Amino acid sequence: MAVSRNCILVGAPVDSGQKTPGCLMGPAAYRVAGLATTLTDLGHRVSDWGDAKPAPVIERPNSLPHVHGEAETVAWAKALSEVSLKAMEAGFPIFLGGDHAMSLGTVAGVAAHAKAKGRPLFVLWLDAHSDVHTPATSDTGNYHGMPVAYIAGREGFDAFPPFPAPVPARHICLFGIRSVDAAEQAALKGRDYAINDMRVLDERGIVAPLREFLQLVEHKKGMLHVSLDVDFLDPSIAPGVGTTVPGGTTFREAHLVMELLCEQNLVTSLDLAELNPFLDERGRTARLMVDLVASLMGRKVFDRPTRGHQG
């Protein structure tokens, strides 16, 4: 049975971390898809704080020329960090994105709250990509490929505020990744990230590796931030994203992840990232993401009662 929570909805209409426009419409799509009503029907309290507004944009003279939208992304990171900290203090924040560059700010606020509480922070990164680039290593210059590096305290983010409490690599689980370039492979090598790519999930299944990570969170009495990228899902079921990679999780696999997270009751905050309604099919992806949140918050997709043989 899911614990009743005070859910804080915060729109993060970030569109600056990449070059495909449309993610700024993500928060509105989640609202139209009935996220608040879904949570209320499950017995949760819901407060919608509206959409965050970016801090003042300040251009930096020594910015790397290939990096896309640095000043705008920094402005968003600062604003989202502040509202994230306030939302953590008020309840269970659900950040409605928005490009995954949003996590440069949302997780910073979550980390500041965890630090103030004296508890370790863990991050479950549900994504097709590892997102461990720094501005110097990224060929595309897209900030949505960099949040994990910033969260882990890697160097090269001089334009951003220092991350309040870098998360140790062993506290970051990269789950479902299947598109990792050479620079990212080099960044991951020799560091103890919990890496569960699609090869691992094909061989071991969803349950065992996820439970191992959750056991560590529970053992350390940690707080758990989940960052769910639309491209974690297979594009056949979730087309509304600009970074599609074939071979993602199926409908049932994704719901199983959410149901396991619900059962363990360790999640303390949630990102919903990369929804691009302009690329969606009549709200199909937005509705699926809302359904996944429902599974995380207590809804069961299928009843599985134990029954005797009925012949």
Cα separation of the termini: 32 Å
CATH class: Alpha Beta
Shape: globular
- SSE string: EHHEHEHEHEHEHHEHEH
Average pLDDT taken over every residue: 94
Measured as a percent range, the helix fraction is 25-40%
As laid out across the biggest beta sheet, the strand order is 2-1-3-8-7-4-5-6
User: Which superfamily, in CATH terms, is the homologous superfamily?
Assistant: Ureohydrolase domain
Structural class: alpha/beta
CATH architecture grouping? 3-Layer(aba) Sandwich
Low-confidence stretches: 303-307
Oligomeric state: single chain
Question: Key terms for this structure?
Answer:
311 residues; 35% helix; eight-stranded parallel β-sheet; Arginase, Chain A; 10 helices; 8 strands; alpha/beta
Task: Characterise the protein shown here.
35% of the residues lie in helices and 15% in strands. It is an alpha/beta fold and 311 residues long. It has an eight-stranded parallel sheet with strand order 2-1-3-8-7-4-5-6, sandwiched between helices. Strand 5 (172-175), helix 6 and strand 6 (194-196) form a beta-alpha-beta unit. Helix 3 (70-90) packs parallel to helix 4 and helix 8 (207-219) runs parallel beside helix 9. The radius of gyration is 18 Å and the shape is globular.
